[in-house]
Design a protein that fits this description.
By secondary structure, this protein is an alpha+beta fold. Helices cover 35% and strands 25% of the residues. The protein has 5 helices and 9 strands. It has a 4-stranded antiparallel β-sheet. Strands 1-5-4 form a 3-stranded antiparallel β-sheet, covered by helices on one side. α1 packs antiparallel against α2. The radius of gyration is 17 Å and the shape is globular. The N and C termini lie far apart (43 Å).
């Protein structure tokens, strides 16, 4: 996908097995191959990363994704999640600690920062990226370079 392509990052509530990754990849590739907005084909892609994230993208230079087509992609994940007992809409914060992916509920971040478990240099996954360029440049960033920077400002004051 080109750098300008729109992207959505979905985080699962648990690590996926290799078999689940393969199933998710196959099911979503089939859906994306038939993805359309108001009858116009969409050029999309899907990738499962770190056995925890599903990245869906669409090249809107070919055709714009509509509200209905975006809703359809969300439904794919809801339906697949129900079938596989996976929540693709996990809102916890994912980060790397000792090269292992960890997650923490948002309401526990402050205490982890205070206890120095999460530091300004901790690499977090910023699932709020909106296009492929942002994904490449800012998906995995130091916590101090993300929306979490306010927690470190509080600690240093």
């Amino acid at each position: 996908m080109p750098d300008y392509a729109r992207v959505w990052v979905y985080q699962t509530n648990r690590n996926l097995t290799d078999s689940e990754v393969q199933t998710i990849q196959q099911v979503l590739e089939n859906q994306i191959n038939n993805w359309a907005a108001h009858g116009a084909d969409l050029a999309g892609s899907v990738q499962v990363l770190h056995n925890r994230f599903v990245v869906v993208s669409v090249d809107e230079m070919q055709n714009q994704a509509s509200g209905c087509s975006i809703d359809a992609s969300t439904r794919w994940l809801k339906d697949l999640g129900a079938e596989l007992n996976i929540d693709f809409f996990d809102r916890s914060v994912a980060f790397l600690q000792n090269d292992e992916l960890q997650t923490v509920e948002i309401n526990k971040i402050k205490s982890l920062v205070t206890d120095n478990i999460l530091t300004s240099n901790t690499l977090i996954f910023n699932n709020l990226v909106s296009n492929i360029k942002e994904f490449k440049d800012n998906w995995n960033v130091k916590a101090s370079d993300s929306w979490m920077k306010r927690y470190f400002q509080m600690v240093t004051v």
